[in-house]
Automatic annotation (TrEMBL):
<comment type="pathway">
    <text>One-carbon metabolism; tetrahydrofolate interconversion.</text>
</comment>
<keyword id="KW-0520">NAD</keyword>
<comment type="pathway">
    <text>Amino-acid biosynthesis; L-methionine biosynthesis via de novo pathway.</text>
</comment>
<dbReference type="GO" id="GO:0004489">
    <property type="term" value="F:methylenetetrahydrofolate reductase [NAD(P)H] activity"/>
</dbReference>
<comment type="similarity">
    <text>Belongs to the methylenetetrahydrofolate reductase family.</text>
</comment>
<keyword id="KW-0285">Flavoprotein</keyword>
<keyword id="KW-0560">Oxidoreductase</keyword>
<protein>
    <recommendedName>
        <fullName>Methylenetetrahydrofolate reductase</fullName>
        <ecNumber>1.5.1.54</ecNumber>
    </recommendedName>
</protein>
<dbReference type="InterPro" id="IPR003171">
    <property type="entry name" value="Mehydrof_redctse-like"/>
</dbReference>
<keyword id="KW-0028">Amino-acid biosynthesis</keyword>
<dbReference type="InterPro" id="IPR004620">
    <property type="entry name" value="MTHF_reductase_bac"/>
</dbReference>
<keyword id="KW-0274">FAD</keyword>
<dbReference type="InterPro" id="IPR029041">
    <property type="entry name" value="FAD-linked_oxidoreductase-like"/>
</dbReference>
<keyword id="KW-0486">Methionine biosynthesis</keyword>
<dbReference type="Pfam" id="PF02219">
    <property type="entry name" value="MTHFR"/>
</dbReference>
Amino acid sequence: MQERYFSFEFFPPKTAEGTEKLRNTRAQLATLRPKYISVTFGAGGTTQQGTLDTVLEIQREGIEAAPHLSCVGSTREGIRQILATYKDNGIRHIVALRGDMPSGMGEIGEFRYANELVEFIRAETGDWFHIEVAAYPEYHPQAKSPRHDLENFVRKVNAGADSAITQYFFNPDAYFRFVDDARALGVEVPIVPGIMPITNYSQLMRFSEMCGAEVPRWVAKRLEGFGDDRESIRAFGLDVVTALCERLLSAGVPGLHFYTLNAAGATKAIWQRLKL
């Protein structure tokens, strides 16, 4: 059986204080020896420099870094330059996404879909980059139908993706069904579950509304019932997410990708509970 791998996701900090906080978070999570750390990228290149700076710092620390690259609002030449910069700096791993249009930006750019970006990266750089793409077990919020969403995913893989990370979810059956459906259409690449630790009720509901992830009603009601009791929210969240990870790992998933939100505590606690 293929060895499981674990990874973490950060976003580029916008302040000196945020930079220091992220360094502290990385120092704590680096002890868990992740396979790689991914760093998000604002659509249209809005956090391009921050992504690059963070990625290079992670590489210098001896951990594989995987910058996100979103293509909406971008030109081919702009993406070509970014790829060249990453290549020159020895980056070998990219998370290729469509991304959302930044507010106030009128032009969609020269790429409409992520499969076009994957195709472009392959055409420009051959097999230099390991390319990750996104998968949506509970369907992309803008998808016309579950079938349409699945076909989009297959197009990304066929364009040259090496593996996929899912949007976070709390219903493992949605993930298992998605993987079965993808396999039935000939997809063989690893599909790694994305894991969102629960530490803040209102933040979780806001994120889930935006990305189409379903928070089970019983979970939402329990969290809502804790009010401002942050300790109870954290303790309950750890129970829920640990149980989810246990079920996924026991079913033989290829690994887990943690959306850390630039904090170490909850991810580390889940890791310890799982005895990883």
